Amino acid sequence: MDSDTFFLELPKVELHAHLNGSLSQATMLQLKRFHADSGLEDKTNAFFDEFQIGAGDTRNLTDCFQVFNIAHSLTSTPEALTIATRLTLQEFQDDGCCYLELRSTPKETPHMTKVQYIETLVKAIQKSSLHLTMITRLIVSINRKSSIAEAEEIAKLAVEYYKKHPDVIVGIELSGDPMAGTFQSFVPALTQARNAGLKTDDKGVFSTSLSQEYQICVKTFSLTSSQTARLALNACQYVFADNVRKTLNDKLLNFIGKHSL
């Protein structure tokens, strides 16, 4: 088996994927077409000249968050959010991902409330699970730029929908620009969610994939195929969805045994 095939077929566990940070350029193009067909205003033309990234190029933190802003503007309706989620989940599975913890912050836009946002995500994940073999779970994010009141609102929503859909929602997190806000300010909201049972804790931004990230890791640390497979196996210990941990573990062990690793 050549190295590209090995990295693609290796069952991979992705524990940190922000939806809007994982939108590929192909997905963004589809979303731009959707905006055009729907008559929605599109202010994202800068993406295709200023923010495309090629092999060997780099991005600073400011560039990264600008790409997030562009992605946010393309997922401002329930329909666009559904398209983005569906395409992104398919891309992760096509890349050999067997378990994905997707993260996203419920947002209020001119076309959708925070409630509609989280409902749309849950429904899109549930519908995708009917034809994908990859297991997907959702972690609700609080943006560091949020006010305390908004953080508490999102925490309450996370708890409410965790109780309704424990098979989909598994955690809550604080994310966003590390230069914004202070962690201590959000502790009460996170504690509220944790007490309710939630766990507390991108490929699009850098035009990469999980398989490519594994290849970089192998090259950087001179890992063997056996070490790489066991690195993927170790990731199973850290999934928030306790009820699928054994399934993932067995899948990796089967791969290791099949290829005598």
Automatic annotation (TrEMBL):
It catalyses: N(6)-methyl-AMP + H2O + H(+) = IMP + methylamine. Signal peptide: none annotated. Residues 11-199 form the Adenosine deaminase domain. One of its GO terms (biological process) is adenosine catabolic process. It comes from the Eukaryota. InterPro entries: A_deaminase_dom (IPR001365), Ado/ade_deaminase (IPR006330), Metal_Hydrolase (IPR032466). Its cofactor is Zn(2+). One of its GO terms (molecular function) is adenosine deaminase activity. Keywords: Hydrolase, Metal-binding, Nucleotide metabolism, Zinc. Belongs to the metallo-dependent hydrolases superfamily. Adenosine and AMP deaminases family. This is Adenosine deaminase domain-containing protein. It comes from Spodoptera exigua (Beet armyworm). The lineage of its organism: Eukaryota, Metazoa, Ecdysozoa, Arthropoda, Hexapoda.
